[in-house]
Amino acid sequence: xxxxxxxxxxxxxxxxxxxxxxxxxxxxxxxxxxxxxxxxxxxxxxxxxxxxxxxxxxxxxxxxxxxxxxxxxxxxxxxxxxxxxxxxxxxxxx
Length: 94
Description:
With 94 residues, the chain is an alpha+beta fold.
C-alpha cells in the first residue's frame, strides 16, 4: 500500500531562487526523472560552462538575461514558462 502524502508546513523546504529573486517552496522527496528532463539536464551540463564564460562580468540582471539568451540559442528551452502557455490556452480573460 502506498504511503499517504501529507501536505503541511513541515514537509516542505524553502529555497531562494536567484533567477526569480524570491524564495520557492518544494515538497521533500520530489525528483523529476522523466526522460526529457534527464536529457535536458545532460545537455545543460555540457554547455553550462561556456554559457557562463560568455556572460560573465555583467551586472546581475544583464547576466541572467544573457544566460537566458544563450540557453535559447542552444535549444535548452522554449523561453516561455509553462504557466504562461497554460494561461494563454485555457484562461478566459474578460
